[in-house]
Structures are given as C-alpha cells and as structure tokens.
Amino acid sequence: MEKTIRTIPAHKHIALVAHDNCKPELVRWVKENKDKLQRHFLYATGTTGSILSKETGLAIKSLISGPMGGDQQLGALISEGKIDVLVFFWDPLNAVPHDPDVKALLRIASVWNIPVATNRASAKFLFESNLMEQEVDIEVPDYEAYLAKRT
Question: What are the positions of the active site (predicted)?
C-alpha cells in the first residue's frame, strides 16, 4: 500500500490501557509521569480510566471497558488518526477473554505506525524522548489512494 504523511501534534492524544494485573503498575507509572502527561490529551478504556482519574486527578476521556468493546473503540480512534500514542501495559502471561481484541488493538497500532509502549521500560524510553513534545511526521497507509484505485 502507498504511504502518506501524518503529522502528530506536539500536544499528543495518548491512550492508556492496562490489563487487570498491570493496572497498579500503570497507575504508578502515570503518577511518576503526571507532569508530562498533563500536557497531552489522555484517553483510556473504562476501568483503567476510572482508576487513573481517581488516583491521579488527571483529566482522562474514558471509553467503555476493554472487554466490553473499549479496545475496539481505541482501535477505531487510531485508524481515524485521533490517537497518536498507545501505552498498553498488557499481561503476556495471562490469557484474557478478549484476547482477540487485544491483538487487534496492537495490530491496528502497528498498521497506522503509532508509537506503542507495552511496559515500564518502553514507556520510559518513549516519554523521555524529546519527540514527545514536538510535532512529528510519520508515514501511514494512504487509504485515500487505496480507495481511488479500487473504484
């Protein structure tokens, strides 16, 4: 598929997600990075968003719970270019009932070439980057060109 450029703004739209076993770790990470995160627009799946808002006081747009469709909501926002970064502390050692949704979310983040952090180390590397505070051009699928060829 052909590529085009999408500019990720300096004030990013960041999705925060965590499996149940990883929620305490994400809360700790968000508290440690609160100053950086509050300069951006934050989204989260339902339960995670509620916990993070309560524990940190950050303004977070909560979607529905991941197993109830929140992962798919985030995937749709990513494909629409409305999410710029995904922080998803997922538990690779425990299967979850909505595992296909989790894989689909990680897949769509890769398709649309957005930065993804899946644990504390990758989140640290990502958020320590000076690119988090700048506009950044990324290559994304040129869906318009794709559709034009199909008609």
Answer: 71 (proton donor/acceptor)
Active site residue 71: yes
pTM: 0.94
Write the DSSP string, 29-44.
HHHHTHHHHTTSEEEE
Report the number of secondary-structure helices (H) and strands (E) in the chain.
7, 7
Which tens digit of pLDDT belongs to each residue from 123-150? Answer: 999 999 999 999 999 999 998 888 888 7
Question: Which CATH number covers residue 42?
Answer: 3.40.50.1380
Q: Is 46 a known ligand-binding residue?
A: yes
Is 19 annotated as contributing to ligand binding? yes
Q: Mean per-residue pLDDT for 104-120?
A: 97
Range(s) of the domain holding residue 125: 3-150
